[in-house]
Design brief:
Number of strands: 0
Distance between the termini: 10 Å
Strand content: under 5%
Order of helices and strands: HHH
Largest sheet: none
Structural class: mainly alpha
Helix content: over 70%
Shape: elongated
Radius of gyration: 18 Å
Length: 79
């Protein structure tokens, strides 16, 4: 296994972890059980929450593209 392949695989794992974390941090559109307990009334303004969700969505998209590209590079280097 070459050093370059090891570096690409490490970057692949990092991209996957960041992508997983950003997907889990995004707020859902459904209220679920929080509507029963009044959890849908947040103290944060809607614009603040939407700006955070927009940033998280952008990070998710960037990590997804990086993940796919790194998968192809890893495949090409392993041959």
């Amino acid at each position: 296994m070459t050093v370059l392949l090891i570096i690409v695989n490490i970057l692949l794992v990092i991209a996957a972890l960041i992508m997983t974390a950003t997907v889990l941090l995004q707020s859902s559109d459904e209220n679920g059980l929080s509507a029963i307990t009044g959890g849908s009334d947040r103290q944060y303004s809607r614009s603040h929450a939407k700006s955070i969700d927009a940033k998280l969505a952008l990070i998710t998209k960037i990590c997804a593209v990086a993940f796919v590209v790194l998968c192809f590079v890893s495949m090409l280097l392993s041959k």
